Protein backbone atom coordinates (compact mmCIF):
# COMPACT_ATOMS: atom_id res chain seq x y z
CA UNK A 1 0.00 0.00 0.00
CA UNK A 2 2.61 2.48 1.10
CA UNK A 3 5.06 1.95 -1.80
CA UNK A 4 2.13 2.30 -4.24
CA UNK A 5 1.08 5.59 -2.61
CA UNK A 6 4.68 6.77 -2.91
CA UNK A 7 4.60 5.97 -6.64
CA UNK A 8 1.44 8.01 -7.12
CA UNK A 9 2.98 10.82 -5.12
CA UNK A 10 6.07 10.85 -7.34
CA UNK A 11 3.92 10.90 -10.47
CA UNK A 12 1.80 13.69 -9.03
CA UNK A 13 4.89 15.76 -8.21
CA UNK A 14 6.31 15.23 -11.69
CA UNK A 15 3.01 16.31 -13.27
CA UNK A 16 2.87 19.38 -11.07
CA UNK A 17 6.46 20.35 -11.84
CA UNK A 18 5.98 20.02 -15.59
CA UNK A 19 2.72 21.98 -15.44
CA UNK A 20 4.46 24.72 -13.50
CA UNK A 21 7.39 24.94 -15.90
CA UNK A 22 4.95 25.03 -18.82
CA UNK A 23 3.10 27.95 -17.28
CA UNK A 24 6.19 29.84 -16.19
CA UNK A 25 7.79 29.57 -19.62
CA UNK A 26 4.59 30.60 -21.35
CA UNK A 27 5.86 32.34 -24.49
CA UNK A 28 3.31 35.14 -24.27
CA UNK A 29 5.47 37.69 -26.02
CA UNK A 30 7.92 35.42 -27.62
CA UNK A 31 8.65 35.98 -31.22
CA UNK A 32 6.74 33.51 -33.41
CA UNK A 33 9.96 32.45 -35.09
CA UNK A 34 12.49 31.22 -32.62
CA UNK A 35 15.42 32.37 -34.71
CA UNK A 36 14.31 35.97 -34.90
CA UNK A 37 16.91 38.37 -33.59
CA UNK A 38 14.44 41.01 -32.63
CA UNK A 39 13.67 40.31 -29.02
CA UNK A 40 16.90 41.74 -27.82
CA UNK A 41 19.91 43.40 -29.23
CA UNK A 42 23.57 42.80 -28.88
CA UNK A 43 26.23 45.32 -28.00
CA UNK A 44 27.86 44.99 -31.39
CA UNK A 45 24.70 45.83 -33.27
CA UNK A 46 26.62 46.97 -36.31
CA UNK A 47 27.96 43.53 -37.06
CA UNK A 48 25.14 41.69 -38.67
CA UNK A 49 26.87 38.51 -39.67
CA UNK A 50 25.81 36.46 -36.65
CA UNK A 51 22.18 36.02 -35.78
CA UNK A 52 21.75 36.07 -31.99
CA UNK A 53 19.04 33.96 -30.47
CA UNK A 54 16.80 35.73 -27.96
CA UNK A 55 17.17 34.64 -24.37
CA UNK A 56 14.35 36.37 -22.55
CA UNK A 57 11.01 34.97 -23.58
CA UNK A 58 8.56 36.74 -21.32
CA UNK A 59 7.90 40.18 -20.03
CA UNK A 60 8.59 40.53 -16.35
CA UNK A 61 7.27 43.36 -14.24
CA UNK A 62 10.35 43.96 -12.22
CA UNK A 63 12.42 46.39 -14.23
CA UNK A 64 14.79 48.71 -12.46
CA UNK A 65 15.39 52.23 -13.79
CA UNK A 66 18.70 51.26 -15.38
CA UNK A 67 19.47 50.64 -19.04
CA UNK A 68 20.67 47.04 -18.64
CA UNK A 69 17.37 46.15 -17.00
CA UNK A 70 15.11 48.21 -19.30
CA UNK A 71 16.92 47.14 -22.48
CA UNK A 72 16.44 43.47 -21.55
CA UNK A 73 12.67 43.73 -21.90
CA UNK A 74 11.60 41.73 -24.96
CA UNK A 75 9.70 43.74 -27.52
CA UNK A 76 6.00 42.85 -27.43
CA UNK A 77 5.41 40.63 -30.41
CA UNK A 78 2.58 42.58 -32.04
CA UNK A 79 5.01 45.24 -33.17
CA UNK A 80 7.25 43.07 -35.34
CA UNK A 81 4.21 41.42 -36.94
CA UNK A 82 2.53 44.75 -37.69
CA UNK A 83 5.19 46.11 -40.08
CA UNK A 84 3.14 49.10 -41.29
CA UNK A 85 2.15 52.17 -39.27
CA UNK A 86 0.89 55.68 -39.99
CA UNK A 87 2.48 58.73 -38.41
CA UNK A 88 0.42 61.93 -38.01
CA UNK A 89 2.06 65.31 -37.43
CA UNK A 90 -0.77 67.59 -36.38
CA UNK A 91 -0.71 70.66 -34.18
CA UNK A 92 -0.73 74.47 -34.20
CA UNK A 93 2.03 74.30 -36.85
CA UNK A 94 -0.69 72.95 -39.16
CA UNK A 95 -2.20 76.46 -39.19
CA UNK A 96 0.58 78.41 -40.91
CA UNK A 97 1.40 75.08 -42.67
CA UNK A 98 4.46 76.70 -44.09
CA UNK A 99 8.09 75.59 -43.90
CA UNK A 100 7.80 72.77 -41.40
CA UNK A 101 6.46 71.74 -38.01
CA UNK A 102 9.43 73.67 -36.56
CA UNK A 103 7.78 76.94 -37.70
CA UNK A 104 7.89 78.58 -34.27
CA UNK A 105 11.55 77.74 -33.79
CA UNK A 106 12.65 79.19 -37.14
CA UNK A 107 10.48 82.25 -36.72
CA UNK A 108 11.96 82.90 -33.32
CA UNK A 109 15.43 82.43 -34.83
CA UNK A 110 14.63 85.20 -37.31
CA UNK A 111 14.93 82.84 -40.26
CA UNK A 112 14.33 85.05 -43.29
CA UNK A 113 11.73 82.94 -45.08
CA UNK A 114 9.63 82.70 -41.92
CA UNK A 115 9.85 86.37 -40.91
CA UNK A 116 8.97 87.45 -44.47
CA UNK A 117 6.04 85.04 -44.50
CA UNK A 118 4.78 86.59 -41.27
CA UNK A 119 5.23 90.21 -42.29
CA UNK A 120 3.63 89.60 -45.69
CA UNK A 121 0.58 87.80 -44.35
CA UNK A 122 -0.13 88.78 -40.74
CA UNK A 123 -0.51 91.97 -38.79
CA UNK A 124 2.50 93.26 -36.88
CA UNK A 125 2.87 91.71 -33.42
CA UNK A 126 0.97 88.60 -34.51
CA UNK A 127 2.35 85.75 -32.41
CA UNK A 128 2.68 82.04 -32.94
CA UNK A 129 0.16 81.54 -30.14
CA UNK A 130 -2.33 83.57 -32.21
CA UNK A 131 -2.38 80.68 -34.69
CA UNK A 132 -4.03 78.54 -32.03
CA UNK A 133 -7.53 79.87 -32.66
CA UNK A 134 -7.34 78.93 -36.34
CA UNK A 135 -6.59 75.32 -35.55
CA UNK A 136 -10.29 74.68 -36.09
CA UNK A 137 -10.57 71.05 -37.23
CA UNK A 138 -14.12 71.77 -38.43
CA UNK A 139 -14.06 69.00 -41.04
CA UNK A 140 -12.46 66.45 -38.77
CA UNK A 141 -14.16 63.06 -38.75
CA UNK A 142 -11.98 60.64 -36.79
CA UNK A 143 -14.05 57.68 -38.05
CA UNK A 144 -13.10 58.59 -41.63
CA UNK A 145 -9.45 58.74 -40.66
CA UNK A 146 -9.71 55.34 -39.01
CA UNK A 147 -11.29 53.98 -42.21
CA UNK A 148 -8.52 55.44 -44.34
CA UNK A 149 -5.77 54.02 -42.11
CA UNK A 150 -7.36 50.61 -42.36
CA UNK A 151 -7.65 50.85 -46.14
CA UNK A 152 -3.97 51.84 -46.19
CA UNK A 153 -3.12 48.50 -44.58
CA UNK A 154 -1.74 50.11 -41.42
CA UNK A 155 -1.60 48.06 -38.22
CA UNK A 156 -0.74 50.96 -35.95
CA UNK A 157 -1.08 54.72 -35.91
CA UNK A 158 1.05 57.29 -34.09
CA UNK A 159 -0.37 60.78 -33.42
CA UNK A 160 1.67 63.76 -32.20
CA UNK A 161 -0.01 64.26 -28.83
CA UNK A 162 2.39 67.16 -28.20
CA UNK A 163 5.11 68.39 -30.52
CA UNK A 164 7.99 70.72 -29.62
CA UNK A 165 5.60 73.69 -29.55
CA UNK A 166 4.12 72.29 -26.33
CA UNK A 167 0.48 72.46 -27.48
CA UNK A 168 -1.28 69.33 -26.25
CA UNK A 169 -3.92 67.70 -28.44
CA UNK A 170 -5.63 66.47 -25.29
CA UNK A 171 -6.96 68.54 -22.36
CA UNK A 172 -3.80 68.20 -20.28
CA UNK A 173 -4.15 69.63 -16.82
CA UNK A 174 -0.46 70.58 -17.04
CA UNK A 175 -0.93 72.66 -20.19
CA UNK A 176 -3.36 75.34 -19.12
CA UNK A 177 -4.75 77.34 -22.06
CA UNK A 178 -2.34 75.75 -24.53
CA UNK A 179 -4.29 72.64 -25.47
CA UNK A 180 -6.89 71.55 -28.03
CA UNK A 181 -9.79 71.74 -25.57
CA UNK A 182 -9.17 75.35 -24.49
CA UNK A 183 -8.00 76.75 -27.83
CA UNK A 184 -8.83 75.90 -31.44
CA UNK A 185 -10.71 72.64 -32.02
CA UNK A 186 -12.28 72.60 -28.55
CA UNK A 187 -12.08 68.85 -28.69
CA UNK A 188 -10.01 66.11 -27.17
CA UNK A 189 -8.27 65.15 -30.40
CA UNK A 190 -6.24 62.37 -28.79
CA UNK A 191 -9.26 60.81 -27.10
CA UNK A 192 -11.53 61.11 -30.12
CA UNK A 193 -8.99 59.51 -32.45
CA UNK A 194 -8.23 56.77 -29.92
CA UNK A 195 -11.94 55.92 -29.69
CA UNK A 196 -12.46 55.94 -33.45
CA UNK A 197 -9.45 53.74 -34.11
CA UNK A 198 -10.31 51.33 -31.31
CA UNK A 199 -14.02 51.17 -32.05
CA UNK A 200 -13.74 50.68 -35.78
CA UNK A 201 -10.49 48.85 -36.45
CA UNK A 202 -7.91 46.48 -34.99
CA UNK A 203 -5.23 49.14 -35.49
CA UNK A 204 -3.04 49.75 -32.43
CA UNK A 205 -3.16 53.29 -31.08
CA UNK A 206 0.19 54.99 -30.48
CA UNK A 207 1.29 58.44 -29.39
CA UNK A 208 4.24 60.64 -30.20
CA UNK A 209 5.41 62.82 -27.32
CA UNK A 210 8.06 65.54 -27.24
CA UNK A 211 9.94 65.93 -23.99
CA UNK A 212 11.23 69.41 -24.71
CA UNK A 213 9.09 72.45 -25.40
CA UNK A 214 10.95 75.05 -27.44
CA UNK A 215 9.96 78.10 -25.40
CA UNK A 216 8.54 76.85 -22.14
CA UNK A 217 10.10 79.22 -19.55
CA UNK A 218 10.59 76.39 -17.06
CA UNK A 219 12.49 74.45 -19.69
CA UNK A 220 14.58 77.43 -20.74
CA UNK A 221 15.52 78.06 -17.10
CA UNK A 222 16.67 74.46 -16.61
CA UNK A 223 18.61 74.71 -19.85
CA UNK A 224 20.27 77.96 -18.72
CA UNK A 225 21.27 76.10 -15.55
CA UNK A 226 23.00 73.47 -17.66
CA UNK A 227 20.20 71.02 -16.78
CA UNK A 228 21.36 70.94 -13.16
CA UNK A 229 17.82 71.94 -12.15
CA UNK A 230 14.78 70.02 -13.33
CA UNK A 231 11.79 72.22 -12.57
CA UNK A 232 10.34 71.60 -16.04
CA UNK A 233 10.53 67.83 -15.80
CA UNK A 234 9.21 67.69 -12.25
CA UNK A 235 6.28 70.03 -12.78
CA UNK A 236 5.42 69.55 -16.42
CA UNK A 237 6.98 66.92 -18.67
CA UNK A 238 7.06 63.93 -16.34
CA UNK A 239 3.60 64.16 -14.71
CA UNK A 240 2.06 65.17 -18.03
CA UNK A 241 3.57 62.19 -19.84
CA UNK A 242 2.15 59.90 -17.14
CA UNK A 243 -1.24 61.59 -17.42
CA UNK A 244 -1.16 60.92 -21.17
CA UNK A 245 -0.39 57.23 -20.75
CA UNK A 246 -2.95 56.72 -18.01
CA UNK A 247 -5.70 58.50 -19.91
CA UNK A 248 -5.21 57.04 -23.40
CA UNK A 249 -3.26 53.82 -22.84
CA UNK A 250 -1.13 54.09 -25.99
CA UNK A 251 0.37 50.81 -27.13
CA UNK A 252 3.23 52.59 -28.79
CA UNK A 253 5.15 55.60 -27.49
CA UNK A 254 7.23 57.50 -29.98
CA UNK A 255 9.43 59.63 -27.75
CA UNK A 256 11.19 62.68 -29.19
CA UNK A 257 12.57 66.11 -28.28
CA UNK A 258 15.03 64.47 -25.93
CA UNK A 259 18.36 65.36 -27.49
CA UNK A 260 19.45 68.48 -25.60
CA UNK A 261 19.90 66.81 -22.24
CA UNK A 262 20.80 63.41 -20.81
CA UNK A 263 18.16 60.80 -19.93
CA UNK A 264 18.83 61.45 -16.24
CA UNK A 265 17.49 64.99 -16.65
CA UNK A 266 14.24 63.67 -18.13
CA UNK A 267 14.11 60.88 -15.55
CA UNK A 268 13.60 58.71 -18.61
CA UNK A 269 14.76 55.47 -17.00
CA UNK A 270 12.36 56.10 -14.13
CA UNK A 271 9.57 56.76 -16.60
CA UNK A 272 10.28 53.56 -18.53
CA UNK A 273 10.46 51.47 -15.36
CA UNK A 274 7.04 52.82 -14.41
CA UNK A 275 5.77 52.21 -17.95
CA UNK A 276 7.01 48.60 -18.00
CA UNK A 277 6.18 47.69 -14.38
CA UNK A 278 2.95 49.39 -13.39
CA UNK A 279 1.39 51.45 -16.19
CA UNK A 280 -1.89 50.29 -17.73
CA UNK A 281 0.00 49.28 -20.90
CA UNK A 282 2.91 47.48 -19.23
CA UNK A 283 2.35 44.22 -21.11
CA UNK A 284 1.83 45.56 -24.60
CA UNK A 285 3.52 48.96 -24.93
CA UNK A 286 6.33 49.40 -27.42
CA UNK A 287 8.69 52.38 -27.30
CA UNK A 288 11.39 53.83 -29.53
CA UNK A 289 14.89 54.94 -28.59
CA UNK A 290 14.77 58.73 -28.04
CA UNK A 291 15.06 59.04 -24.28
CA UNK A 292 17.83 61.61 -23.84
CA UNK A 293 21.15 62.57 -25.37
CA UNK A 294 23.06 59.44 -26.41
CA UNK A 295 20.15 56.99 -26.29
CA UNK A 296 19.20 57.04 -29.97
CA UNK A 297 20.18 53.77 -31.68
CA UNK A 298 21.41 52.51 -28.28
CA UNK A 299 18.69 52.27 -25.60
CA UNK A 300 14.94 51.87 -25.28
CA UNK A 301 12.72 49.64 -27.41
CA UNK A 302 12.98 49.51 -31.19
CA UNK A 303 15.54 51.76 -32.85
CA UNK A 304 14.38 54.72 -34.90
CA UNK A 305 17.91 56.19 -35.02
CA UNK A 306 17.67 59.17 -37.33
CA UNK A 307 14.64 60.29 -39.35
CA UNK A 308 14.14 58.21 -42.53
CA UNK A 309 16.47 55.56 -41.09
CA UNK A 310 16.92 52.69 -43.56
CA UNK A 311 20.28 50.91 -43.22
CA UNK A 312 19.77 48.81 -46.42
CA UNK A 313 21.02 45.62 -44.76
CA UNK A 314 19.90 43.29 -41.99
CA UNK A 315 20.58 44.53 -38.47
CA UNK A 316 20.16 42.33 -35.38
CA UNK A 317 17.71 44.53 -33.52
CA UNK A 318 14.22 45.69 -34.32
CA UNK A 319 14.15 49.06 -36.03
CA UNK A 320 11.72 51.42 -37.73
CA UNK A 321 11.90 53.60 -40.79
CA UNK A 322 9.92 56.78 -40.09
CA UNK A 323 9.37 58.12 -43.58
CA UNK A 324 7.49 61.15 -44.86
CA UNK A 325 5.36 61.35 -48.00
CA UNK A 326 6.20 65.07 -48.28
CA UNK A 327 9.99 64.94 -48.55
CA UNK A 328 10.28 68.48 -47.16
CA UNK A 329 8.28 68.36 -43.94
CA UNK A 330 6.50 66.24 -41.35
CA UNK A 331 3.76 68.82 -40.85
CA UNK A 332 1.44 69.90 -43.67
CA UNK A 333 2.81 72.49 -46.11
CA UNK A 334 0.24 74.33 -48.19
CA UNK A 335 2.88 75.34 -50.73
CA UNK A 336 4.51 71.96 -51.31
CA UNK A 337 4.74 71.17 -55.04
CA UNK A 338 3.87 67.71 -56.36
CA UNK A 339 7.55 67.03 -56.99
CA UNK A 340 8.17 67.14 -53.23
CA UNK A 341 5.76 64.27 -52.66
CA UNK A 342 7.29 60.83 -52.86
CA UNK A 343 5.62 58.71 -55.54
CA UNK A 344 3.81 55.49 -54.72
CA UNK A 345 6.69 53.62 -56.37
CA UNK A 346 9.25 55.34 -54.14
CA UNK A 347 7.19 54.65 -51.03
CA UNK A 348 6.60 50.99 -51.84
CA UNK A 349 10.30 50.55 -52.69
CA UNK A 350 11.10 51.99 -49.27
CA UNK A 351 8.49 49.80 -47.59
CA UNK A 352 9.77 46.60 -49.21
CA UNK A 353 13.48 47.23 -48.55
CA UNK A 354 12.67 48.22 -44.96
CA UNK A 355 10.71 45.07 -44.17
CA UNK A 356 13.31 42.87 -45.92
CA UNK A 357 15.96 44.30 -43.61
CA UNK A 358 13.91 43.72 -40.46
CA UNK A 359 12.38 47.18 -40.08
CA UNK A 360 8.87 48.51 -39.66
CA UNK A 361 7.62 51.21 -42.02
CA UNK A 362 6.02 54.26 -40.37
CA UNK A 363 4.61 56.45 -43.07
CA UNK A 364 3.95 60.09 -42.19
CA UNK A 365 1.16 62.42 -43.31
CA UNK A 366 0.52 65.97 -42.16
CA UNK A 367 -3.20 66.67 -41.70
CA UNK A 368 -4.54 70.19 -42.29
CA UNK A 369 -5.72 72.63 -39.66
CA UNK A 370 -9.29 71.89 -40.80
CA UNK A 371 -8.87 68.25 -39.90
CA UNK A 372 -8.61 66.79 -43.38
CA UNK A 373 -5.97 64.61 -45.00
CA UNK A 374 -5.27 66.10 -48.40
CA UNK A 375 -6.14 63.95 -51.44
CA UNK A 376 -2.48 63.57 -52.42
CA UNK A 377 -1.68 61.94 -49.07
CA UNK A 378 -4.89 59.95 -49.29
CA UNK A 379 -3.98 58.69 -52.74
CA UNK A 380 -0.52 57.56 -51.57
CA UNK A 381 -1.99 55.78 -48.55
CA UNK A 382 -4.60 54.05 -50.68
CA UNK A 383 -1.92 52.95 -53.18
CA UNK A 384 0.03 51.38 -50.35
CA UNK A 385 -3.18 49.74 -49.15
CA UNK A 386 -4.00 48.38 -52.61
CA UNK A 387 -0.52 46.96 -52.92
CA UNK A 388 -0.66 45.40 -49.45
CA UNK A 389 -4.08 43.94 -50.24
CA UNK A 390 -2.38 41.75 -52.86
CA UNK A 391 1.13 41.40 -51.49
CA UNK A 392 0.58 41.78 -47.74
CA UNK A 393 1.12 38.05 -47.21
CA UNK A 394 4.81 38.70 -47.94
CA UNK A 395 4.92 41.62 -45.48
CA UNK A 396 2.81 41.14 -42.33
CA UNK A 397 4.17 38.52 -39.92
CA UNK A 398 7.13 37.90 -42.21
CA UNK A 399 10.74 37.72 -41.08
CA UNK A 400 13.91 38.67 -42.93
CA UNK A 401 15.58 35.91 -44.88
CA UNK A 402 18.88 34.99 -43.31
CA UNK A 403 20.66 34.35 -46.59
CA UNK A 404 20.03 37.62 -48.43
CA UNK A 405 17.97 40.78 -48.18
CA UNK A 406 18.12 41.74 -51.85
CA UNK A 407 19.13 39.47 -54.67
CA UNK A 408 22.81 39.20 -55.59
CA UNK A 409 22.12 39.42 -59.33
CA UNK A 410 18.58 40.60 -60.08
CA UNK A 411 18.25 44.30 -59.37
CA UNK A 412 15.28 45.46 -57.30
CA UNK A 413 14.43 42.06 -55.82
CA UNK A 414 13.97 41.95 -52.03
CA UNK A 415 13.34 38.89 -49.89
CA UNK A 416 11.14 38.11 -46.89
CA UNK A 417 10.21 34.68 -45.59
CA UNK A 418 7.80 32.62 -43.52
CA UNK A 419 9.85 29.53 -42.74
CA UNK A 420 7.07 27.88 -40.73
CA UNK A 421 4.91 27.58 -43.85
CA UNK A 422 7.78 26.94 -46.28
CA UNK A 423 7.49 30.19 -48.21
CA UNK A 424 10.22 32.47 -49.45
CA UNK A 425 9.01 35.72 -51.00
CA UNK A 426 11.01 37.48 -53.70
CA UNK A 427 9.51 40.91 -54.28
CA UNK A 428 10.41 42.35 -57.65
CA UNK A 429 9.94 46.12 -57.75
CA UNK A 430 8.01 47.07 -60.84
CA UNK A 431 10.59 49.56 -62.09
CA UNK A 432 13.04 46.63 -62.25
CA UNK A 433 10.76 44.26 -64.18
CA UNK A 434 13.18 42.85 -66.79
CA UNK A 435 12.89 44.41 -70.22
CA UNK A 436 13.48 42.53 -73.47
CA UNK A 437 13.19 39.12 -71.77
CA UNK A 438 10.58 37.23 -69.81
CA UNK A 439 13.19 35.58 -67.59
CA UNK A 440 14.64 36.64 -64.30
CA UNK A 441 17.73 35.11 -62.71
CA UNK A 442 17.57 34.86 -58.93
CA UNK A 443 21.19 34.62 -57.84
CA UNK A 444 20.51 34.24 -54.12
CA UNK A 445 18.14 31.28 -54.42
CA UNK A 446 20.38 28.21 -54.39
CA UNK A 447 18.26 25.23 -55.48
CA UNK A 448 20.58 22.86 -53.61
CA UNK A 449 19.97 24.63 -50.30
CA UNK A 450 16.24 25.15 -50.74
CA UNK A 451 14.08 22.24 -51.85
CA UNK A 452 11.71 24.20 -54.11
CA UNK A 453 8.31 22.70 -54.87
CA UNK A 454 6.78 25.51 -56.93
CA UNK A 455 6.94 29.22 -57.77
CA UNK A 456 3.86 31.45 -58.01
CA UNK A 457 3.27 35.16 -58.51
CA UNK A 458 0.69 37.18 -56.58
CA UNK A 459 -1.85 39.42 -58.26
CA UNK A 460 -2.18 37.53 -61.54
CA UNK A 461 -3.94 34.20 -62.10
CA UNK A 462 -4.24 32.85 -58.58
CA UNK A 463 -2.61 29.47 -58.03
CA UNK A 464 -0.96 29.40 -61.44
CA UNK A 465 2.59 27.99 -61.25
CA UNK A 466 5.45 29.78 -62.95
CA UNK A 467 8.03 27.92 -65.00
CA UNK A 468 11.39 27.80 -63.28
CA UNK A 469 14.65 25.90 -63.77
CA UNK A 470 17.71 25.47 -61.60
CA UNK A 471 20.89 26.87 -63.11
CA UNK A 472 23.87 25.94 -60.96
CA UNK A 473 23.65 28.01 -57.81
CA UNK A 474 20.73 30.04 -59.14
CA UNK A 475 17.24 29.64 -60.48
CA UNK A 476 15.73 31.13 -63.62
CA UNK A 477 12.06 32.04 -63.39
CA UNK A 478 9.92 32.73 -66.44
CA UNK A 479 7.70 35.69 -65.72
CA UNK A 480 4.14 35.78 -67.05
CA UNK A 481 2.66 38.40 -69.35
CA UNK A 482 0.96 41.13 -67.36
CA UNK A 483 -2.31 42.04 -69.05
CA UNK A 484 -3.31 45.70 -69.26
CA UNK A 485 -5.54 46.79 -66.42
CA UNK A 486 -3.90 44.50 -63.86
CA UNK A 487 -4.56 46.02 -60.46
CA UNK A 488 -1.19 45.10 -59.00
CA UNK A 489 1.57 47.62 -59.55
CA UNK A 490 4.78 48.84 -57.96
CA UNK A 491 5.98 45.45 -56.80
CA UNK A 492 5.46 41.80 -57.77
CA UNK A 493 5.73 39.00 -55.25
CA UNK A 494 7.12 35.67 -56.41
CA UNK A 495 6.22 33.03 -53.85
CA UNK A 496 8.90 30.35 -53.74
CA UNK A 497 7.30 27.35 -52.05
CA UNK A 498 9.78 24.95 -50.56
CA UNK A 499 9.85 21.83 -48.46
C1 LIG B 1 -16.58 54.28 -29.06
O1 LIG B 1 -15.88 54.28 -27.85
C2 LIG B 1 -16.31 55.21 -26.88
C3 LIG B 1 -15.40 55.16 -25.70
O2 LIG B 1 -15.10 53.86 -25.33
C4 LIG B 1 -17.76 54.98 -26.53
O3 LIG B 1 -18.21 55.97 -25.63
C5 LIG B 1 -18.58 54.99 -27.80
O4 LIG B 1 -19.92 54.66 -27.52
C6 LIG B 1 -18.05 54.03 -28.83
N1 LIG B 1 -18.77 54.17 -30.08
C7 LIG B 1 -19.17 53.13 -30.80
C8 LIG B 1 -19.87 53.44 -32.06
O5 LIG B 1 -18.97 51.99 -30.45
C1 LIG C 1 21.26 45.36 -52.92
O1 LIG C 1 20.98 46.47 -52.07
C2 LIG C 1 22.11 47.24 -51.72
C3 LIG C 1 21.66 48.25 -50.70
O2 LIG C 1 20.56 48.99 -51.14
C4 LIG C 1 22.73 47.86 -52.97
O3 LIG C 1 23.89 48.57 -52.63
C5 LIG C 1 23.07 46.75 -53.96
O4 LIG C 1 23.53 47.30 -55.16
C6 LIG C 1 21.85 45.87 -54.23
N1 LIG C 1 22.22 44.77 -55.10
C7 LIG C 1 21.72 44.63 -56.35
C8 LIG C 1 22.20 43.46 -57.12
O5 LIG C 1 20.92 45.42 -56.82
C1 LIG D 1 12.75 17.50 -51.68
O1 LIG D 1 11.39 17.28 -51.34
C2 LIG D 1 10.83 16.13 -51.92
C3 LIG D 1 9.36 16.09 -51.60
O2 LIG D 1 9.15 16.09 -50.21
C4 LIG D 1 11.59 14.90 -51.43
O3 LIG D 1 11.09 13.76 -52.05
C5 LIG D 1 13.08 15.05 -51.73
O4 LIG D 1 13.80 14.01 -51.18
C6 LIG D 1 13.62 16.38 -51.21
N1 LIG D 1 14.98 16.55 -51.68
C7 LIG D 1 15.97 16.96 -50.90
C8 LIG D 1 17.31 17.14 -51.57
O5 LIG D 1 15.83 17.20 -49.70
TrEMBL record:
Domain named Glycoside hydrolase family 29 N-terminal: residues: 57-392
Key words of the record: Glycoprotein, Glycosidase, Hydrolase, Signal
One GO-annotated biological process of the protein: fucose metabolic process
Alphabetical list of InterPro entries matching this protein: FUC_metazoa-typ (IPR016286), Fucosidase_C (IPR031919), GH (IPR017853), Glyco_hydro_29 (IPR000933), Glyco_hydro_29_N (IPR057739), Glyco_hydro_b (IPR013780)
GO cellular component: lysosome
Domain Alpha-L-fucosidase C-terminal: 405-496
GO terms assigned for molecular function: alpha-L-fucosidase activity
Signal peptide range: 1-25
Family stated for the protein in its record: Belongs to the glycosyl hydrolase 29 family.
Entry function: Alpha-L-fucosidase is responsible for hydrolyzing the alpha-1,6-linked fucose joined to the reducing-end N-acetylglucosamine of the carbohydrate moieties of glycoproteins.
Protein name: Putative alpha-L-fucosidase
Organism: Folsomia candida (Springtail)
Amino acid sequence: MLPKMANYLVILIIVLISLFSLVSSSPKYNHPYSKSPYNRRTKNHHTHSNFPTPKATRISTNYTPTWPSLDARPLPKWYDSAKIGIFLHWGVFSVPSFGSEWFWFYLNNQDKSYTSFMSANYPPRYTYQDFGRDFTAEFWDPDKWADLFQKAGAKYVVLTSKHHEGFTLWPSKYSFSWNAMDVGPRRDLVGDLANAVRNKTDIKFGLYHSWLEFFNPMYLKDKANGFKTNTFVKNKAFPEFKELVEAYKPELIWSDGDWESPPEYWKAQEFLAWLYNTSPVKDTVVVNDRWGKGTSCTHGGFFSCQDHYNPGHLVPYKWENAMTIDSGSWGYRRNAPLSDYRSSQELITELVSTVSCGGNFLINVGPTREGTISPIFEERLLSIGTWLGINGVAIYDSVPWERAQNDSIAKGVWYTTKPEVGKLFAILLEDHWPSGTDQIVLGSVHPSLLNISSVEILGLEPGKKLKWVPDGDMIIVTLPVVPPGTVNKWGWTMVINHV
